[in-house]
Design brief:
The structure holds 2 protein chains of 2 kinds. Chain A is mostly helical. Chain A has 7 helices and 2 strands. In chain A, strand 1 and strand 2 form a beta hairpin. Classes of the chains: A mainly alpha, B mainly alpha.
């Protein structure tokens, strides 16, 4: 880089030592070359996730609005989402508790995968990514089970036996949209895991595992909100 | 974890020039080719929308002379004209066209950060356009719900296009949003992460600032449109009741219950108002560069211009309900949204003052791009001032459903961005093609367009004051509107036909000049920004030859005192800069 020596050193922020806090923030944003000291893919994933946050926010705001504005009573979550085992009394929210547990666990395995990725431990990374994908697939499978139960009860997007029509509409729409995100994430995880296994990132570095992880944690985080707004309120 | 920025990477070996015709011009990942593809498709659909507007004007100016323009067709034309112009022409051309062409060149990179995603962005855009145009050929034709697609009208039986057109419209919008997201992520990441050596954010040309902020707005605003399109699609296909209330439809009770039509309006305008600035901010940026270059003066108040762009972008998310004063929402909201709307006038006015002060005592070259840029200042001030009227609830309520609103938004976000588009197309034409356009035809084109648009939209303000309602196929028996309004209407139609015809000059000019124009050379305008300093014109694949440029100064060193020539390119080392670097022992 013969040219860089002639550039005013004060503007070459990326070569300056990193500072913390406000100073670091100002240094990053007034630097040349790049604003964040991260690979492109990671920056792009963060921006995408902010955009995706707006999508889910719009969905949830729409849900809140129709729930407030509908005149019919809203079905009771504790009764709708209850499940009985071997003829026991129905236990409220048991299935969804298991589903949430599974999804949160998958965030843990994902975080471990990122860690082993940066240690260049290919085998453990792949195993943990596959475990994450398996947990994600389990989640989607349980969601399908829940949907089939609700469909069996007669819950449809355009109506249900207990109250406001919008209950089924928003439930299928939002959990469906989230389920698509999880499904996409499972595929994404498997594709990246395969590439890790084949050694595609030996030279390029394992940032891609972290980028996949960002997406995965985001999907989990969104679930926490959906869980709270649909099942607890 | 430290990460080596692009500018410090050894990149000479990374270039693989595409060899075959197909990879070079069709499935191309080169940002310049993608930009031209985007631009070509956008201008093509724009012409369709222009044709629709002429048909609408024929009906309004000379009612019932064209036998096949019936009320249904008229509403379909209104809808498709609006939607195409705002989204498929202006958004696509500013961001997909100019964004793609200028971002890598002005930032001194070889391409977008993810060229493959960039290519997909264009092809998704093309698919969305094809789906949109396909709605002309389905039974019932395209949707006639008005470009805002308000529920419940948009999916009620009896609205033109409720058979299939509305569904195709919603699908097309969803595909467009996917295309935009792929492109937009690329633009934002490229600007933030892939600038060349010495190019700090505060040395970026304003074009990039405008495109950058508009793209961020798009990434945050289009989700609302996507969500409303999905919900409306479910209302239509699955019979849900998100937006549809229980009501009588063609004499029968419909199947919906308890939906909220006003929710659709909120979601739509949460997208719709930022969308105004998605179109306007790139125009602000591009016009700043055109004005500065052809006035041979640095842009007045560069930092304020940047902050104004950011402030407008932020505020644009807080004003959406000023489109809904007459919607029946809680009137107390009106006060809040009127206030934010008027606050947004401050950074906007600041930009106008700065453009005028850039021109002040400049060494102005009145060539075609500059004429269009100055014309933009006129139309924008004009449309902006009527916006101040409409931003106030008490004035908006009587005017909201009249031609005053049509005149306002056509001046401010129809004509003004289009004038900037022409300024920018003429300004960068020599770089894109390597040849100059014909200056005389360009000037004739400008005067026809500029004066013609005033002949169209100025009288519309008066129609609005008279209370002539907008979106009406014909007036019927309206005692309060004088007969003479029809004279105005007829004249507006003649002016519209004149302006539309005059655009032929533009196409003759750019196509004729492709072959017969004078050779332009690398930097015909004497401009400072990086795209004019490329080793080849038009720039080749990879843009910069063997080594990326380094930037030593801001983008506006025009007429610097004590210099031989009246501009200093951004990549030209200055004495004090070299001294500084030497001093530090680098």
């Amino acid at each position: 880089m013969s040219h860089s020596s002639t550039v005013d050193a004060s503007v070459s922020g990326s070569t300056a030592p990193a500072a913390d806090g406000v100073t670091g923030f100002i240094n990053d944003w007034s630097a040349d070359k790049q604003t964040y000291h991260v690979p492109w893919g990671k920056a792009m994933m963060w921006i995408f996730l902010v955009s995706d946050t707006f999508i889910f926010s719009c969905f949830l705001v729409g849900y809140m609005t129709v729930r407030i504005s509908t005149a019919d009573p809203w079905p009771l979550a504790t009764e709708v989402f209850a499940l009985s085992f071997f003829g026991s009394d129905p236990i409220p929210l048991i299935l969804i508790a298991i589903m949430t547990f599974v999804l949160i666990t998958s965030s843990g395995t994902m975080a471990l995968a990122v860690n082993y990725g940066y240690r260049k431990d290919k085998k453990k990374t792949v195993i943990l990514m596959c475990a994450t994908a398996a947990l994600g697939a389990t989640f989607v499978g349980m969601q399908m089970y829940e949907w089939s139960k609700l469909i069996g009860y007669g819950v449809r997007p355009w109506g249900n036996p207990w109250g406001a029509d919008q209950f089924g509409s928003v439930f299928y729409m939002i959990t469906g949209f989230h389920g698509l995100h999880v499904t996409g994430g499972v595929i994404y995880l498997l594709v990246v895991a395969r590439k890790v296994w084949l050694g595609h990132y030996e030279k390029k570095g394992y940032e891609i595992v972290e980028i996949t992880g960002l997406y995965w944690h985001f999907v989990d985080l969104v679930w926490v909100f959906i869980f709270a707004f649909f099942y607890l309120l | 974890m430290a990460y080596v920025p692009l500018a410090d990477q050894d990149d000479a070996h990374a270039l693989h020039d595409p060899q075959s015709f197909v990879t070079k011009y069709i499935w191309s990942q080169d940002h310049k080719v993608i930009a031209i593809q985007y631009g070509g498709v956008a201008i093509f659909v724009g012409l369709i929308a222009l044709g629709l507007s002429i048909l609408m004007r024929l009906q309004l100016g000379f009612p019932d002379t064209v036998s096949w323009i019936n009320p249904a067709f008229y509403y379909q034309a209104v809808t498709m004209h609006g939607m195409i112009m705002v989204i498929y022409l202006l958004t696509a051309l500013f961001l997909g066209g100019f964004g793609n062409y200028l971002i890598p060149l002005m930032c001194g990179t070889r391409d977008m950060v993810f060229p493959f995603l960039n290519m997909l962005s264009f092809w998704f855009y093309l698919v969305s356009v094809i789906i949109l145009l396909a709605s002309f050929f389905v039974p019932g034709g395209p949707t006639g719900a008005g470009w805002t697609l308000y529920a419940p009208q948009s999916i009620s039986h009896g609205t033109p296009g409720s058979e299939g057109g509305i569904l195709l419209m919603l699908i097309s919008l969803a595909v467009f949003i996917i295309a935009f997201t792929m492109g937009g992520l690329n633009y934002v990441t490229t600007i933030l992460q892939a600038r060349t050596r010495g190019l700090t954010l505060m040395r970026l040309p304003l074009s990039i600032w405008g495109i950058f902020t508009a793209t961020v707005l798009g990434l945050f605003a289009f989700p609302a449109l996507l969500v409303s399109a999905i919900m409306m699609g479910f209302d239509l296909v699955l019979g849900t009741s998100f937006f549809m209330p229980a009501m009588m439809e063609l004499g029968a009770q419909n199947d919906h219950e308890g939906g909220s039509p006003i929710l659709f309006q909120h979601l739509f305008w949460f997208f719709g108002h930022p969308e105004v600035y998605i179109v306007a901010l790139p125009a602000f940026g591009l016009v700043s560069d055109v004005i500065s270059t052809h006035a041979r003066k640095n842009i007045f108040g560069y930092r304020m211009m940047v902050w104004a762009i950011i402030a407008i972008g932020g505020l644009s998310f807080m004003v959406w309900a000023h489109h809904m004063y007459v919607s029946g929402m809680n009137p107390y909201f009106g006060f809040f949204f009127a206030t934010t709307t008027l606050v947004i006038a401050i950074p906007t006015a600041l930009k106008v003052y700065n453009w005028v002060l850039t021109l002040w005592q400049g060494n102005i070259r009145l060539n075609t791009p500059m004429l269009f840029a100055i014309g933009f200042i006129f139309t924008f001030v004009h449309g902006g001032l009527t916006g101040l009227f409409l931003g106030n609830v008490v004035i908006d309520v009587p005017l909201a459903d009249t031609y005053f609103v049509v005149a306002h938004f056509h001046m401010v976000m129809g004509v003004s961005p289009v004038l900037v588009l022409f300024a920018a197309l003429y300004h960068w034409y020599p770089k894109v093609t390597g040849r100059m356009f014909n200056e005389t035809i360009g000037k004739v084109h400008f005067w026809c367009t500029f004066l013609g648009t005033y002949a169209i939209y100025l009288p519309m303000h008066y129609l609005g004051f008279l209370g002539v309602p907008r979106r009406y196929y014909e007036m019927g028996n309206t005692d309060f509107i004088p007969e003479t309004a029809q004279v105005l209407n007829a004249n507006i139609t003649l002016a519209a036909i004149f302006v539309a015809t005059a655009q032929i000059l533009f196409f003759i000019n750019i196509f004729w000049s492709l072959k017969h124009g004078e050779k332009a050379g690398g930097n015909p305008w004497g401009a400072t920004t990086l795209e004019w300093q490329t080793p080849d014109t038009p720039p080749k694949h990879g843009n910069w030859g063997d080594e990326l440029p380094a930037v030593y100064r801001w983008a506006y060193d025009y007429s610097v005192p004590g210099m031989d020539k009246d501009f200093v390119p951004q990549n030209e080392p200055g004495e004090e800069y070299e001294k500084n670097a030497h001093h530090k022992g680098a």
